[in-house]
């Protein structure tokens, strides 16, 4: 699934793999487009944070695209208001 994130004044094209969307929501593979879209919408803040973290590790002139895997989503530090990776409920992480 494709999306964009803002990096200072640039918009960078990103994509999150089907595997990552299935893993983050514990969807059985193969999943449907609708199921993955719901997973994307539900975990959008986690996905955006993962994209920004991965982008920050790239050279400053990196044009994109950024491809996110389930490993990238797992690397996002616990933040208040971000859904827990792999949860099928709306459980939110608590601030540490």
- Specify the helix fraction band: 25-40%
Shape designation: globular
What structural category arises from helix and sheet content?
A: alpha+beta
Uncertain runs with pLDDT below 50, 5 residues or more? 89-96
Tell me the total number of β-strands.
Answer: 3
Helix and strand element order = EEHHHEH
Describe the structure.
Mean pLDDT is 82; it is low at 89-96. Helix 1 crosses helix 2 (33-42). The chain is an alpha+beta fold and 96 residues long. A hairpin with a 2-residue loop joins strand 1 (2-7) and strand 2 (10-16). It has helices at residues 18-24, 33-42, 44-56, 70-74; strands at residues 2-7, 10-16, 66-68. The protein has one domain. The relative contact order is 0.22. A 3-stranded mixed sheet has the order 1-2-3. The longest helix has 13 residues, at 44-56.
Task: Spell out the key features of this protein.
17% strand; globular; 3-stranded mixed beta sheet; alpha+beta; single chain; disordered C terminus
Provide the fold topology.
Layout: E1 2-7, E2 10-16, H1 18-24, H2 33-42, H3 44-56, E3 66-68, H4 70-74
Parallel strand pairs: 2-3
Antiparallel strand pairs: 1-2
Helix pairs in contact: 1-2
């Amino acid at each position: 699934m494709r999306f964009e994130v803002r990096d200072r004044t640039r918009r960078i094209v990103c994509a999150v793999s089907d595997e990552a969307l299935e893993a983050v929501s514990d969807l059985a593979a193969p999943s449907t487009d609708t199921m993955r879209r719901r997973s994307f919408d539900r975990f959008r803040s986690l996905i955006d944070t993962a994209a920004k973290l991965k982008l920050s590790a790239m050279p400053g002139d990196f044009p994109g695209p950024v491809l996110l895997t389930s490993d990238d989503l797992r690397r996002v530090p616990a933040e208040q208001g971000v859904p827990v990776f792999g949860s099928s409920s709306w459980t939110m992480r608590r601030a540490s």
